[in-house]
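[scheduler] slot 2 assigned
[scheduler] job type: sequence-to-structure, two independent chains
[scheduler] chain ordering preserved from manifest
[runner] begin chain α
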Amino acid sequence: MRMSRWLWLSLIVAVSTPALAFDQRYTDWTALLRTNVVEVEHGDASRVDYAAIKHQVGQLDAIARELSGVTAQQYAGWTQARREAFLINAYNAFTVKLIVDHYPGIGSIKDIGGLFTSPWKIDFFSLLGHQTHLNAIEARLRKPGNFDDPRIHFAINCASIGCPMLRSEAYTAEKLDTQLDDQTRRFLSDHSRNRYAGGRLEVSKIFDWYAADFSHGWHGITSVKQFFAAHAADLTADAAGQTRIRAQKVSINYLDYDWHLNGSTTP
């Protein structure tokens, strides 16, 4: 049976044309962030214009589809930095999508879901070939042996004022280390959420909830107190306080977490 010329040419094109490569620069995600994320608190925090993104939902959905299109095989072939950047960007993009899908009418991400349904366990997107939820991305980032990088907690954003800021650019493998260091500095320098006062440290509940993630030996650090010691200058300008923090001779209190939506406008 003779193959038609059209079918023959189609097969040649299919074999010789490679699949479109995934954009490791996250150009569209960065463009959306730069337009809709505003830095506040001297650059140590940010607010998100969810109302504006609601009117750009087509762009957000296209970003979500691109992230969902990455296969497990593609992901496995990437460097560790590319995998880490991808997961952070996916977590943040799908969190924004979750908020926008329910906006307006919510004052907190915790308003989404039901009495027995956490917003972080709703299977509302596909990633690496599976229908999944935000907690699954966080679990992959936190799994011992994958990255062992506690700085991820200053990069992933839960759409709440208590969270570290949503950065106004995507994370990329080439800049990842610098970006994560910068996020760490900004969060610790925001003294509404982390501070040295009255001879003690008053810090975000993140350091309580995820204390184990600071014990995996990242840069030789095996505890939250050691982490604070390495960042004493960000936590306070007081020389005596810095000395006490570096000596790990300071008590730690955890502040209440502010779950109010980190929006730039009232829903």
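[runner] end chain α
[runner] begin chain β
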Amino acid sequence: MDTLNTLTTKDGVVTLCALEPLFENFIKISVYLFGLAAFIVFIGGGIKYLTSGGDPKGTQQAQQTITMSLAGLFLLAAAWLILNLIKEFTGVNVTIFELPNCP
């Protein structure tokens, strides 16, 4: 009930402060989902590689799938690293979404 009170005004109208937890949860969930999707694609590429039966075209497609899934995981990790480096060098925590004048 406290969360609802911090998200509304005295009149019971939802304010922009409600965007803070919504955006934070969206980012957390999307990072986990992107990581999970990349892992599943990586496993799928491995299965495709094992079942290609020595076919050069199938093997090449499987290798491309594995490469792209690893590139996706690398980009996800690099983005998080860059955000943390910005936080360390500037002192501004850019991984937290905060609106001014919100409790």
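[runner] end chain β
[qc] chain β: The chain has a mean pLDDT of 83.
[scheduler] slot 2 released
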